[in-house]
């Protein structure tokens, strides 16, 4: 679906780590990766961690989100976004998505704010930037911090500003299938010096930075290794290339599928969608069973595909938080995600689209 490309300087930098002995969570590559990634998002500080989930959890913990609080996030996203809210004992409040770009609906979001709302968590779904001007205006009106989930959107921009650069904290994932990978890993970015310091303390077991082995609070072992950061540095050198290739792949899919019944992803004006995974939606007359049949048909043709993320309140851990989410439900039950890896060529794209079109054109 999304195979990483590690043909740059990854091996060179890994050999340097091994030869110098800097293989754990200290080393020059950690510092370099944090600095360079913060610069990419136009923030002052980057705090590397060992997963994108850890990044979101650390951000919520550093903002003192707790059992008395609610966090508003989209229903249409991967489960880790909601899980991190639950880790803190807070209540996830699910907002519906917009029909046009599939991202969180600012109008629905604002209707859900209460005096218990401790954070707003927009998710830039599949690499498409959320409506950040509207979201930030809502957050300012209600004095609520924004934690951006940018796990799928490395390099995406909104009005020429990078995603992750709008909120109090931006959270990224570097899992193996992401546009930029460290195998496993993540990053918090912020321009708040006090928050940066708190994130670093919590990342390292809650240990006091001036008094070694003294713990003022319970923290976590969420550190990234120098080996992972070395891979990240090499990947970051090629981010523009990775994004350009994802956008080229999306254009190839669009050209081949735009005459079909499928609802295709769109790029909102003044945004750059990085198309982490190219996802199409079957029209209204199709059911979830039809979507699953389409995936089975592709599989029989040796084409890997996946369903859209489920609308989270449909699943057991989140059912108690259910509310009407008509757009999210429709998208989740009819969406198909197609291969989008860096090395995907025109012949492979032809094979994917030919198979899908044959299924759509069946009697």
What does this structure look like?
It is a single chain. The protein folds into two domains: 10-95 and 107-236, 3-Layer(aba) Sandwich (Aspartate Aminotransferase, domain 2), CATH 3.40.640; 239-360, Aspartate Aminotransferase, domain 1, CATH 3.90.1150.10. A four-stranded mixed sheet has the order 1-9-8-5, sandwiched between helices. A three-stranded parallel sheet has the order 3-2-4, covered by helices on one side. A three-stranded antiparallel sheet has the order 7-6-10, with no helix packed on it. By secondary structure, the protein is of the alpha/beta class. A hairpin with a 2-residue loop joins strand 6 and strand 7 (161-162). It is globular, with a radius of gyration of 21 Å. The mean pLDDT is 97. It has twelve helices and 13 strands. The chain starts with 9 loop residues before the first helix and ends with a helix.
């Amino acid at each position: 679906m999304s195979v990483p490309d590690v043909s740059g300087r990854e091996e060179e930098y890994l050999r340097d780590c091994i030869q110098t002995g800097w293989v754990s969570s200290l080393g020059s590559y950690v510092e370099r990766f944090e600095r360079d990634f913060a610069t990419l998002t136009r923030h002052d500080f980057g705090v590397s961690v060992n997963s994108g989930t850890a990044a979101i959890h650390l951000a919520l913990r550093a903002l003192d989100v707790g059992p008395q609080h609610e966090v508003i996030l989209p229903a249409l996203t991967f489960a880790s976004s909601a899980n991190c809210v639950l880790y803190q004992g807070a209540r996830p409040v699910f907002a519906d998505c917009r029909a046009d770009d599939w991202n969180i609906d600012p109008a629905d979001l604002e209707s859900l704010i209460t005096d218990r709302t401790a954070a707003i968590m927009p998710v830039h779904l599949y690499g498409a930037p959320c409506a950040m001007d509207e979201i930030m205006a809502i957050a300012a009106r209600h004095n609520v911090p924004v934690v951006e989930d940018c796990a799928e959107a490395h390099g995406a921009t909104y009005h020429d500003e990078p995603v992750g650069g709008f909120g109090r904290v931006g959270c990224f994932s570097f899992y193996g299938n992401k546009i930029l990978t460290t195998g496993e890993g993540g990053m918090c970015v912020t321009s708040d010096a006090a928050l940066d310091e708190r994130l670093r303390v919590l990342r390292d077991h809650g240990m006091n930075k001036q008094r070694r082995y003294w713990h003022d609070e319970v923290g976590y072992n969420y550190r990234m290794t120098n080996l992972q950061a070395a891979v990240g540095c090499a990947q970051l050198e090629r981010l523009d290339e990775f994004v350009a290739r994802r956008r080229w792949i999306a254009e190839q899919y669009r050209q081949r599928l735009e005459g079909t019944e499928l609802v295709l992803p769109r790029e909102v004006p003044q945004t750059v969608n990085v198309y982490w995974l190219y996802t199409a939606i079957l029209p209204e007359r199709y059911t979830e069973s039809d979507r699953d049949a389409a995936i089975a048909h592709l599989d029989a043709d040796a084409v890997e595909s996946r369903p859209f993320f489920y609308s989270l309140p449909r699943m057991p851990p989140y059912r108690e938080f259910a509310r009407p989410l008509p757009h999210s439900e429709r998208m989740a039950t009819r969406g198909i995600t197609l291969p989008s890896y860096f090395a995907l060529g025109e012949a492979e794209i032809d094979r994917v689209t030919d198979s899908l079109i044959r299924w759509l054109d069946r009697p």
